[in-house]
Amino acid sequence: MWEELQLQIVKPAAWFKFGLSLIVAVALYRLGLTVLRLLRPRMSAGFYPALHALLLLSTLLLLLALSTQAFYLTSSPLFGLGRSVIEALQATGGQLLLIVALALVAWSLIGEAAGRIVPSDEFNRRTVRVRTLKSVVESTLKAVVLFTALIALLQTIGVNATSLLASASVLGLAVSFGAQNLIKDIFNGFFILLSDQYGVGDDIELNLGAVSGTVEAIDLRTTSLRDLSGSLHIMQNGQITAISVKSKDWARVVATVDVAYEADVDQAIRVLEQVSRELYSDEKWRGHFLDEPDVQGVTALGTDAITLRALFKVAPKSQYSVGREFNRRIKIAMDTAGISIPYPQRRMSFGDGPLEIRLMQDAPTGQRPTTPAEQDRRTLPVEPGLTHDPDPSR
């Protein structure tokens, strides 16, 4: 047997056959392992390891038997077993089993490969692109594996897959006229992914603010958004007519503050500029800025206040935290400088007429309650700003 192996081991065809044998053995092992995992809840704790060990030994024996056929080792005691295995795999039942096993292996490999693609925690366009395409490519490849396995199974049991596909294409053409919205969704989703209009993790508004939130998932047909309240909005891609992306390339904080007309405007502008420069120079916040603050000064003269504005160019999705910190700092700085920030106030007026005050008390025990008429007779008018003394003799 050793002389036969030395003659066959240098042949590329023998190694090719060995590779096929290895794939078949791994596929059948994965199929058996899947069946064991499905049956594990229904068997005793010690029975599963024994069956797993038996599966490993059977797989190893199968690989050795197929290897004798790959290298044509006629003197090996497993040569006959290998021929019987090949004949069994060539039968209809063996082909069905092999197709299912290979499809299962391909499905598992796609899932494992997708799981190894871990996007970076840093938010950038590459990370968004990877997160988006990861789910789309994984689902597409799994659909291809499932479709290919189905066609191979039909061919194995004697169904003419060519005529079936032709009939399916005619039926698909007829269905397409009634599924135009579905086709529109898929086409729109394809171009959204192709042009990288937005992706998973982006903050967007769809259809001029009709739906807004963070993109949680996107495929060829739908886009899923999670808003601030936690609600998940699922919109069909064909219904998307306008897209506003708030986290692409860079963002801007429109930092505004209102001051009273009685305030010193120049001093208020100096305070605004000081707060903006301090926020920009702070080591904790410096990394969020992409450019120096642009203090624009007075931008509006409103009916109740003067509006001052500064613009901060920041990294994507940093506008929210930077804006909150600016609001905190500008409020403290304005209070320190003695500059008031107007806020709406309410004033209540009771008119010029006298106020009517009713004195009510509970009746003592054993005494009848006071009637409403008696209560009205005890009601005394009181002029605004005056007090009434019920005992004039004092």
From TrEMBL:
Residues 141-180 form the Mechanosensitive ion channel transmembrane helices 2/3 domain. Residues 362-394 are annotated as: Disordered. The chain crosses the membrane at residues 20-39, 51-73, 93-118, 139-158. Its main location: membrane. It is a multi-pass membrane protein. It is found in: Cell membrane. It comes from the Bacteria. SUPFAM superfamilies: Mechanosensitive channel protein MscS (YggB), C-terminal domain, Mechanosensitive channel protein MscS (YggB), transmembrane region, Sm-like ribonucleoproteins. It holds the Pfam family MS_channel_2nd. Residues 253-341 form the Mechanosensitive ion channel MscS C-terminal domain. The keyword Ribonucleoprotein does not apply. Keywords: Cell membrane, Membrane, Transmembrane, Transmembrane helix. Residues 181-244 form the Mechanosensitive ion channel MscS domain. Residues 374-394 have a biased composition (Basic and acidic residues). Belongs to the MscS (TC 1.A.23) family. This is Mechanosensitive ion channel protein MscS. It comes from Deinococcus piscis. The lineage of its organism: Bacteria, Thermotogati, Deinococcota, Deinococci, Deinococcales.
